[in-house]
Structure formats: structure tokens, C-alpha cells
Amino acid sequence: MKATIRYLAGIAGPSGFGSNSTAEQVTLQHNISSSSNNLTALITGASSGIGAETARVLAKRGVRVVIAARDLKKAKDVIQNIRKETPNAELILLEIDLTSFASIQRFCSEFLALELPLNILINNAGIFSPNLEFSEDKFEMTFATNYLDTAKKTGIEGRIINISSVIHSWVNRGCFRFNDMLAGKNYNGTRAYAQSKLASILHAKEMARQLKARNARVTINAVHPGIVKTGIIRAHKGLITDSLFFIASKLLKSISQGAATTCYVALSPKAEGVSGKYFTDCNECNCSSLASDESEARKLWNNTHALLHKRLRQAAT
């Protein structure tokens, strides 16, 4: 109950920010003259929504932003809009389809050819599919996009941020089976989305453990952006409809509020050295017991590592 009141009232947590904070507000101290203008951030899924807002705000704070997108037209529109606000923004657009290992490998080659540092990696790309679809590599589409791309990007100095969701807590242990998720067995769109977001947290926790063991100067955390106002159409007639919309509007975040936690974890000095955590409303919080299960995280990591090794070996032959 206290958490709900804190959320609705926008009461700030230990970080000094809360549910009403925007991406610009949480990064205000990182202006163009600060050290942030020496950083390079790579953002997947930045052609719309929270990803586009994250790119806009980081660019405004002087961060070089590499936008990795499948829809180049939409991504170019985002870049054009950012440059209207921040003419000197350094923006790079690279094409990638995160459901295809071949596309990921091409993207990696193109990025490495730029010879840029990679300080911040934001795994923002994600989809929700109500129907069963498979990726080019025959993996269930939601799982391939939201998790397997994350698992490939390891060992780079800086901050890695996985975009998760509070609905990861909807997954029970009996429904979280690696092979069933890849195959789309007994597919349900909401469950598949929740499973992929649970996997994002487990990946962050296991990778954080391994990075710590190597004394690597890399942190990785998962964030819940909140439920964001996108695609909601308000009816103009009817007391019930207006009332329901009013209630929903108090629970949902704007896109700028939705991007706040990602931007906070990406740039805040308070997040330095913090790894393997789950953030919501710009503050650390608890995730589900399954998401905190170290053995489950290690098992998912091992299964994913074996799968990636097999696929990459096949691609090389």
C-alpha cells in the first residue's frame, strides 16, 4: 500500500527521484560541459517511444549516441528531431535486426569499424506479439528479440542496462523452461513477454556475478520503465469512459517519465559500481523471488551460452 501511495504521489526515493521524474530532470547535472560528452552510448530500439526519448536526452547531455534500429526511416526521423533541438548532437545510425544472428554479426562488424569506445549499452529493443511468430533462426520472436541480443553483448567496459518490466513477476517457476520458450510451446503473448523480461533480469544478475569475479569495470542492471502512455485514445463521451481514462492517466507514465530510470542508471554517479540490481522509478527495488534465484540465472546463462555457441559455429561453417 505504501509503495502504491508513493508511486501515485511521485514521492522521491533515496536517489532523490520518483515516479514523476522525467529523463531530463534525472540527468540535469550532466550538461554538455560535463564528462558525459566523452561517452558513447549504444541504444537498441531507439526509433520510437522510450528508446527515442532516451536517445534524445542522452544526446542533449553531450553523449555520442549510436542508434541501432531495424526501421531506418523511423530512426532517421528520430535523428532529425533530435538535431532540431540539439544541432551539435553526435548521432550514428546503424541497421540491425535483433531477431537475426547474421544481422547482429554484420552490425558488430560495422560498429567495430567505427573504432569508437562503448561506455553505455542500453538493451531497449523489444516487442509484444499476440500471435506465435518465429525469428529467422527459428526461435520464438519475443524471446529472441528481448533476451538473446542481450546475451551476446558482454565484457565491454561501462554500464549495461537491460530494459525489463514489472510483469516479470507474473512468471512462475513451472512455466519458465528454456526449450519451451524457444519453441513457443503453448504460446501466450503476455506470458512470452513476461518470460523474456524475467530472462533480462536473470541475465543481468548472472553477468554481474561473472563480471565481479573478473574484477571487470563493467556494471549491468535491469530497469522497469513503468507503464507508459502510448497508444491510448480517449473517448469524448460517456461518464464511465471518462472516469476510467482519468484513473488510468494517474497510473500511467509519460514517455519522458518512462525513460527516466534508464537515463538515471546510465549517467548517475550514484549508480557507479552498482551491479546486478533491479531499478524502478530511479531507485533500487526488489524483483520477484524467481528473478533473484542465482541457480536459475546460472542455468539460463549456461543454456543460452550453449545455444549461441552452436549457432555461431554453424554460421562459421
Automatic annotation (TrEMBL):
CDD domains: retinol-DH_like_SDR_c_like
One family name in Pfam for this protein: adh_short
Gene3D superfamilies, per database record: NAD(P)-binding Rossmann-like Domain
Classification via InterPro entries: NAD(P)-bd_dom_sf (IPR036291), SDR_fam (IPR002347)
Domain of life: Eukaryota
Keywords (A to Z) from UniProt: Oxidoreductase
Signal peptide annotation: none
Assigned protein family: Belongs to the short-chain dehydrogenases/reductases (SDR) family.
Name of the featured protein: Short-chain dehydrogenase TIC 32, chloroplastic
Native species: Stylosanthes scabra
